Amino acid sequence: MDTFIVGLIAATLRVATPLIYGTLGELYSERSGVLNLGIEGTMFFGAFVGFAAADATGSLWLGVLAALLGGMLAGLLMAFFSVRLGVNQHVSGLGITLLLTAVSLFFFRLIYGEPRIPPSIRSFDQLQPFGNLPIIGPITTQYALTYISFLIIPLAWWVLYRTNVGLNIRAVGENPEAADAAGVNVYRVRSYALMIGGGLMAVGGAFLSLAQLGAFTYGIIAGRGWVCIALIIFANWQPAKVLWGALLFGGVFALQLRLQSTGLNLPYETFLALPYVVTIIALAIAGRNATGPAAVLKAYKRE
Amino acid sequence: MNAIEMKSITKRFGPLVANDHIDFDLQKGEIHALLGENGAGKTTLMRILYGLYHADSGQILVDGSPVHITSPKDAIGWGIGMVSQHFTLVSPLTVAENVVLGYNKGYIYRPQEVIQNVTKAANQFGIDVEPSAIIRHLSVGERQRVEILKALYHNAKVLIMDEPTAVLVPQEVDILFQTLERLRKDGLSVIFISHKLYEVMTICDRITVLRDGKKIGTVLKNDTSERELARMMVGRETFGVYRQGEQKAGNPLLRIENITAVDKKGLTALKNVSLNVYEGEVLGIAGVSGNGQSELTQVLSGTLKPASGKIFIGDKEITNASPSEITRAGVGRIPEDRHAGVVGELTVAENLALESIEKFTRRSTLDKRLILKNAEQLISEYQIKARPTDPIRTLSGGNMQKVILARALSPEPRVVIASQPTRGLDVGATEYVRTKLLEQRNRGAAVLLLSEDLEEVMSLSDRIAVIYEGQIVGIVPGTEATEEQLGLMMTGARQEVKQHG
Ligand SMILES: Nc1ncnc2c1ncn2[C@@H]1O[C@H](COP(=O)(O)OP(=O)(O)O)[C@@H](O)[C@H]1O
Ligand SMILES: [Mg+2]
């Protein structure tokens, strides 16, 4: 197979990785009945916290752990506003995104000042389970976090459909009144789901700063959080379909990078827009009959 | 010993006292009715017992010892189960998942095991449901059985049923009553909420009557009568409402000429229907549901175009006119489905202004003050228990119907079309609606009444037309009609006779 295709596949998996984390994070949130528009900010926060922690401790995995914990905290904050206080989910989500973006930038300035080139660290090495075998070798040369992202897709299915926590998450996302009447603590279940979700989103952000880039930049997330919001509709809120959505976007993204370097005489913005355009089209087709969890956007309040 | 004792329970919602020092006790193994009109406070009292509301004051005893119930979980722990008016089931989940929800032990959820357990419980309690079915696919009666099974699965010794028969067809009511009888023999105590007298007299041992948040009394079924219960419930004897006085001979205000119409499925729903409704009369249309009544009201409302035929209001032809043109021609409508007749999220005042919005428009903007003034006036005139600014969806069925009445009748329309105007209403509200319709007749309007309630048609109508399979099979004067004769015509009998004779 020619190196173009092999390179494309390998890049697709890399680009898809943060989207898988983000979309699965959003999946947990929305299946519990909360649209978390804090995703963009949470990913940014994860990218920063992960970077700063790894930089300070010298351990990349401690960076990932810090991002995970930071993201869970962000989820808890979202839960406090949207679940506990019942603030409109659009408002609290966007508020969290603004807040976490500002907080990250604030501490970034505090720690790193205003450097002309973004600070960098030695990023994760890629795993090479098949060494230099042709085709399979380069395709499987990926970061550990990418491998993990592919494992947490079936894990998400298992959690939702084969654990009691998952049963509760699905119940509160569809009919919180019914779940409450059955003795399920709606606030607690939603808070858990938002914390799991926030943690995953933040790890998705940390993947960018600790693996893909090895650096922290202001535009590091570049709207990936919003892409995840679209992908979840594409995936019809099913864990397995998250994979297809992320691969589709990742594939087109990787493709446009390669097209840019073929010297086609088009403004490069055209290429940049391509994955987003494809996402919109795919969404328009796949999302027509999509129905989300019934309780999304509705704050639950016991009378 | 009493299974449950509630002592001096008081619950306020703002200024409204929904429960005013109510005492209630439930003996072991009895079916105890909680009877009262809509808004009497029945649901509130039971939601307190089930931990969904918290009483402002009062005490609850289970098996003689005082308990604190702050959540449904507590209530379930004390052996109390509740089947709400609006079912609390998660519709994309299975029956079994709904039954175990909140009570599944451990971390891992094993679908097969849960289905087995629930199947066993269903067999043990004799409740006929399929544990692996998805709730969304079940009928209302089946869903109710799931709710009962859910309560029993959690070891309920006391089962609260909030107006369980309101949503059921008669056959399902029979099944429910049999189930409750059997469970009672096994030692279950049941609180049965209702506002239907004959049901209460059929199934219950004792009856507690609430009115306006107060307890009126508790009586033994064997010591009371429907009449006494009705008096306790509404605070006076109910004599019913009947048309009185002869109808003055007048002009036809509504003329329907040879209307034929096709329903959504493409079937002929109305065949050559011709009717005149005269000023100062109620023309009742009796018939089994689904024989063209809905289509007739739709044609008369302008929401369904007839295939042929003509309709006149006075001299003005309104065939194919839009709903608002028909309103302006002098038609007031009381729609079949009152929830579809209002906009739930809008306020009472806005809903009252909805059909004549141009009256409330000043220079292209709505005059809020005028809308509020109009609402305040109608609220007091029609005795609606609500504030102008309440969203209409928060109103009880009776009050919602009063809003619709006020909106339809306040412009004094020449023609009134009322479909199922009292369906689902309690005694007091029903009486009110019927009185209002007769008022229209007496001021000279032509009233077309479509109802499946034969007693209603007979007590209000000057003439009764019977509809069967989209055709008017006969018209009889209200003074001569008998229930038997109408019943026969409603099954199409008159037609047969005609054909043979
Ligand atoms: N959550 C609530 N908030 C405000 N008012 C309420 C609420 N629940 C019930 N009410 C009012 O309390 C009164 C009693 O209602 P309810 O107990 O539902 O009556 P019932 O079940 O006998 O029809 C009604 O006037 C109703 O409008
Ligand atoms: Mg009620």
Verbal overview:
The complex is a heterodimer of chains A (303) and B (501). Chain A is mostly helical and 303 residues long. Chain A has a single domain, classed as ABC transporter involved in vitamin B12 uptake, BtuC (Orthogonal Bundle), CATH 1.10.3470. Chain A contains twelve helices and no strands. The model of chain A has no long low-confidence stretch (mean pLDDT 93). In chain B, helix 13 packs parallel to helix 14. Chain B starts with a strand and ends with a helix. The C terminus of chain B is likely disordered. At the A-B interface, helix 7 and helix 8 of A face helix 2 of B. The structure holds adenosine-5'-diphosphate and magnesium ion. The site of adenosine-5'-diphosphate has 11 residues of chain B, from strand 2 and helix 1.
Topology, element by element:
The complex is a heterodimer of chains A (303) and B (501).
Chain A: H1 3-31, H2 39-57, H3 60-84, H4 89-112, H5 136-140, H6 144-162, H7 164-174, H8 176-181, H9 186-212, H10 224-234, H11 239-260, H12 268-286
Chain B: E1 2-13, E2 16-27, E3 31-35, H1 42-49, E4 57-62, E5 65-67, H2 72-77, E6 80-83, H3 95-100, H4 111-125, H5 140-153, E7 158-162, H6 170-185, E8 189-194, H7 197-203, E9 206-211, E10 214-220, H8 226-234, E11 252-262, E12 268-278, E13 281-286, H9 293-301, E14 308-313, E15 316-317, H10 323-328, E16 331-334, H11 348-353, E17 361-362, E18 365-366, H12 368-381, H13 397-409, E19 415-419, H14 427-442, E20 446-451, H15 454-460, E21 463-468, E22 471-477, H16 483-490, H17 493-500
Parallel strand pairs in B: 3-8, 3-9, 6-7, 7-8, 13-20, 13-21, 16-19, 19-20
Antiparallel strand pairs in B: 1-2, 1-4, 4-5, 9-10, 11-12, 11-14, 14-15, 17-18, 21-22
Helix pairs in contact in B: 13-14
The site of adenosine-5'-diphosphate has 11 residues of chain B, from strand 2 and helix 1.
